[in-house]
Amino acid sequence: MRNVAIVGRPNVGKSALFNRLTGRRIAIVDAVSGVTRDRLYAPVEWHGTHFRLIDTGGLAPNPDQLEAHIAKQVELALHEADLILFTVDGQAGRTPQDDAVAGRVRELNKPVWLVVTKTDNERLEAGWADFASYGFSRWFTTSSLHGRGTGALLDAIAEDCAGRHDAADAQAEEATTIAIVGKPNAGKSSLLNTLTGEERAIVSEIAGTTRDAVDVTIKWKVREQDRERDQLVTLIDTAGIRLKKARKTPLDVFSVNRAEKAIARARVVILLVDATAGVSETDKKIAALVAEAGRSCIIGVNKWDLMKGVTDRKAFQQWTREQLPFVTYAPMVFLSAKTGENVAQTITRACEIDVVAGQTVTTGVLNRVLHAAFVEHPPPLDRGRRLKFFYGTQTGVRPPRFLLFVNDPRRAQSTYTSYLVNRLREAFGLEGTPVVLNWRARGTAGRKKG
């Protein structure tokens, strides 16, 4: 699949153009320059042609520490790109920063198209002439706000990329999607970089460096019965989630919302806890969000290399379990994104959990397990009457959902529901995923969620 990179100086409208071309609000757009920090990827399909669009941060002169990290991300995107969209601001006109970016992309000996943004009307479209002396072979005037010119740009990209879509790309939707979430500076971007073997996301000691949800798809070796196969895995590095009282700016709020949406579209969530700081109130809030979304989960205790000899692993695990009651179903892995310890194991476990969460159980086997559970440990009496089980069926996956037909759903106590969930986990290996039991009176349309 062809890579098409959007590059330019800060605040020329790159992220707005990215969102318009992808048809989704993926990148954060704000009047403050420097909002986009990592490079963002999104697959685009236009009239049957597929390509991958890359949004980048702005290239700034005399960069500070963070801007230098951003510049490195832009360079990586330029290296990957098959086509470069050099983006300039039609309202602001040509600047020395534009000249510097033009010189850099010209050095690459790759196709470069000039895209003049913010040309919201015909008068502003004439502003492209300010940039004509750059001499790039193709130019486009666009308005991301109104959609002017973006269709023509997509047509041209699709024509350039035609015939380059392969079968592997068509399978991308089958990827196991894993969101890496946690409070700011828990090591999420370090984990992503360790997994991909490159500086895919900016890593900094400045908390809150990642603002967008950054996606990257890799191939991962998984064992299935007696053979190995390649599994596509999409990793989502998210902005650190803060408690509401700590969200200081609209960007903080939008970044947190983006992280919450990443949880919703993930199949498995890795909740990364900073071992040196312990479980915080923010970690507890994130765990509640994961459970509320019904997502499979792994608790990743990061920076464990710094805690060896300082605290006992078993005691830390027990304490962490007590602090995160919403995700009791989640296995715990002690890892170090910095040294790589147990990083591969974490992703392998996530892939295994996704398979388990997506499995279906035959009705006959399910009912044998449930009948045995009711016989071995009958429900307690409720005002002289007992919950009576007739039969059950599976109604969904990710998470596994089961519907149990009984005499009176009101007699299904929470403690007994938990007992049945544990029996199903034990019988079908449902580790790492929520299990949902719904109750229905036989012969009626009513249902009670357990």
Summarize the model shown.
The chain is an alpha/beta fold and 450 residues long. The chain is 33% helix and 24% strand. It has a six-stranded mixed β-sheet, with helices on both faces. Strands 8-9-7-10-11-12 form a six-stranded mixed β-sheet, sandwiched between helices. Strands 15-16-17-18 form a four-stranded mixed β-sheet, covered by helices on one side.
What distinguishing features does this structure have?
450 residues, alpha/beta, Rossmann fold, GMP Synthetase, Chain A, domain 3, 3 domains, 6-stranded mixed sheet, elongated, disordered C terminus
Helix tally?
13
Low-confidence stretches: 28-37, 166-173, 200-211, 445-450
Question: What portion of residues is helical?
Answer: 25-40%
Cα shape: elongated
Radius of gyration: 26 Å
The overall pLDDT average reads: 82
| Gross CATH architecture of the largest domain | 3-Layer(aba) Sandwich
Write the CATH homologous superfamily of the largest domain: P-loop containing nucleotide triphosphate hydrolases
Total number of strands = 18
Oligomer: single chain
> How many domains is the backbone divided into?
3
Largest sheet: 6 strands, mixed
Tell me the span between the first and last alpha carbons: 46 Å
Strand order within the widest sheet? 2-3-1-4-5-6
Backbone structural class: alpha/beta
